[in-house]
Write a structure and sequence with these properties.
The complex is a heterodimer of chains A (291) and B (311). By secondary structure, chain A is mainly α. Chain A folds into two domains: 56 residues, no CATH class; 226 residues, MetI-like (MetI-like fold, Orthogonal Bundle), CATH 1.10.3720. Helix content of chain A is 75%, strand content 0%. Chain A contains 15 helices and no strands. Chain B folds into two domains: 63 residues, no CATH class; 237 residues, MetI-like (MetI-like fold), CATH 1.10.3720. Chain B is 73% helix and 1% strand. In chain B, strands 1-2 form a two-stranded antiparallel ribbon. In chain B, helix 6 crosses helix 11, helix 6 crosses helix 17 and helix 9 packs parallel to helix 15. The chains are: A mainly alpha (291), B mainly alpha (311). Chains A and B meet through helix 1, helix 2, helix 5, helix 6 and helix 7 of A and helix 2, helix 3, helix 7, helix 8 and helix 9 of B.
Chain lengths: 291, 311
């Protein structure tokens, strides 16, 4: 090992450790604050602004959210969106990766151009909306699933992995009489599990966080995903504030209710992230080494 | 006989090639159908930039109007404002946000590997995986009139502030919250690059009497230069986007004049006010073309530097 790593912690390391620790606390504080605000009463919140240790705890905001808002419908819709969206995206993305990874075949140049060109140029928001409308795919989550199909960036990540598999493995499978299809499913895919896991996790987070196209295209609020419903809960009162119009018809959500909605929306990511972190980091390492 | 066989094989060359590669073509069709419909379909919709959209006649049937939308566009104050804001915000993001992940990576690298460092990394990278809807909500509530920050100000005897409705606070808050959310994650890319630096270089530097800071600036930084340049070029390639997700979730009419970017502008004129699809497609095409130029330039420079380019 290096000498400077063997030595005891020196002063500089202690200072750096403290500075980084403060930055970590600054990142954590808003979450801590959101969680505490979600379980405290309005009175408590105004009396104890920093909210480091709450005295009165109530879960009424959560029970109200479960009963009186569509947040639970949002959960169901988001899970549906994930369950359908991730496999569909994997189908398109892995297919793309496989074709990109193959040595030359007639038409490869055109195909590669068509796929890569989409990373440089896109039709943009309005044509996508009109296309979806013409195909009668708006107002349905299945439509959004189809729209989000392939992801060229992840396809390249997977292609790089496919190409790093030693050629001899494939050759020997061929000699043993395995077809290309069989080789793909029995040899290439199982060997690529680490990168596939990484991409599945990235896609799952992307789908969990999806809000824009659902907001834009899905009119029926019964089909809204969690993020769109959260937006609706948090921003209704805010829009009023900004335009200085006090609207009586709109429901007023108290601060604790908004915070509880935020907590419920991010809870799954919060719970799963520490366990899956290494896959995400592995993915970005592979991407950056190649990139 | 032999030559006849040869010509037959040649004639059947393409079919034989197709048959030989049939597995590839199965996957190719699955992939290509999606790309054609959902990526190239909208590109064909860009024709609308030169047409007056008529919902009954559809994209193809609508009437050609040539450059009418562009003439209108270049005389439009709101468009100039959005374009200018997009450029300013992107430039300021590069100035203020770009260095942070590098600093975090350099500092983290000085810490000894262990549980503390691991925990720090988990905390730093976590917010990246939340949507801007969630982060925007958290920021809005923290800075809102009942939020912690205003409560503290009130406690200290100050006046409550409408932070996000203030033209002097809004943009700095956009940059700070973006650093808060993404700097930790980006620092992982730099850390990966730092891990690749040969330990011998550090040893040599130490023999020469370089202290910790000198090792940082004279060994680590030069060694990760290419990663820095690539990410910088990528940020420049992203100029026209300026962070739509974030701004859309945090902006409001009061600060529109400084925060309206091309995407929020397109969204507003299409879905909230006029609904002139031809005109907004023209704005979108303008944006896409400049974007293409920037990304193409990025790719060229990256390849010139001997990098693979991102694509």
């Amino acid at each position: 090992m290096l000498e400077y790593k063997k030595k005891k912690l020196d002063k500089a390391q202690i200072v750096i450790g403290i500075v980084m620790g403060i930055w970590a606390l600054l990142i954590l504080f808003p979450f801590y604050n959101a969680i505490l605000a979600s379980i405290s009463t309005q009175r408590e919140f105004s009396r104890n602004p920093l909210m480091l240790f709450p005295q009165e705890v109530t879960f009424s905001a959560y029970s109200y959210l479960m009963k009186a808002t569509s947040l639970m419908t949002g959960y169901r819709n988001t899970l549906f969106f994930l369950a359908l969206g991730v496999p569909f995206s994997m189908l398109i993305t892995v297919s793309t990766a496989y074709v990109l990874s193959r040595p030359s075949f007639p038409g490869k140049k055109i195909y590669v151009f068509l796929v890569l060109f989409t990373m440089y140029f896109s039709g943009g928001m309005v044509p996508i909306y009109l296309l979806m409308k013409e195909m009668k795919l708006t107002n349905s989550l299945v439509g959004i699933v189809l729209l989000y199909g392939g992801n060229t960036f992840y396809a390249i990540l997977i292609r790089n992995f496919f190409q790093s598999i030693p050629h001899e493995i494939e050759e020997s499978a061929k000699i043993d009489g395995a077809s290309e299809m069989l080789t793909f499913f029995r040899i290439i895919l199982p060997l690529s599990v680490p990168i596939l896991m990484t991409v599945i996790l990235f896609l799952a987070v992307d789908r969990w966080n999806e809000w824009f196209n659902v907001m834009l295209m899905v009119r029926d609020s019964n089909k809204w995903t969690l993020q769109v419903i959260l937006r609706n809960i948090v921003y209704t009162t805010l829009d009023d504030m900004a335009s200085r119009v006090v609207s009586v018809q709109k429901t007023y959500y108290s601060l604790s209710l908004k915070m509880a909605a935020i907590v419920l929306t991010m809870a799954p990511v919060m719970i799963f992230y520490p366990f899956t972190q290494r896959f995400f980091i592995k993915g970005i390492m592979i991407g950056s080494v190649k990139g | 006989m032999v030559s006849a066989q040869k010509t037959r094989r040649k004639k059947n060359g393409l079919i034989a090639q197709l048959a030989k590669n049939r597995t590839v073509y199965i996957f190719l069709i699955i992939s290509l159908v999606w790309y054609i419909i959902f990526c190239y379909g909208p590109m064909y919709g860009l024709l609308l930039a030169f047409k007056d959209f008529n919902a009954r006649k559809g994209i193809l049937g609508s009437e050609f109007v040539g450059l009418k939308h562009y003439i209108e566009l270049f005389g439009n104050q709101d468009f100039y404002q959005a374009f200018r804001n997009t450029l300013i915000i992107s430039l300021e993001r590069i100035l203020f946000e770009f260095p942070f992940p590098i600093i975090i990576a350099l500092l983290l690298n000085e810490l000894r590997a262990g549980r503390y460092k691991k925990t720090l990394q988990t905390v730093f990278t976590f917010p990246y995986f939340l949507s801007w809807v969630v982060v925007g909500s958290i920021v809005l509530n923290m800075l809102g009139s009942d939020g912690v920050v205003n409560n503290l100000i009130a406690l200290a005897g100050g006046d409550k502030q409408q932070f996000l409705a203030s033209k002097s606070f809004f943009l700095p808050l956009i940059y700070i919250s973006s650093i808060w959310k993404t700097a930790g994650w980006t620092s992982i890319i730099y850390l990966a690059s730092i891990n690749g630096v040969s330990p011998e270089l550090y040893e040599a530097a130490m023999i020469d009497g370089a202290n910790r800071f000198q090792r940082m600036t004279h060994v680590t930084l030069p060694c990760i230069r290419s990663t820095i340049v690539i990410l910088l070029l990528l940020a420049i390639g992203n100029t026209m986007n300026a962070g739509f997700d974030q701004i859309f979730n945090m902006y409001n009419p009061t600060v529109q004049s400084i925060s309206d970017i091309l995407d929020t502008y397109i969204y507003r004129i299409t879905f909230q006010t006029s609904g002139d699809f031809g005109f907004s497609t023209a704005v979108g095409l303008f944006k896409s073309v400049i974007n293409f130029g920037l990304l193409y330039m990025f790719d060229r420079i990256a390849k010139m530097m001997g990098e693979e380019g991102l694509f």
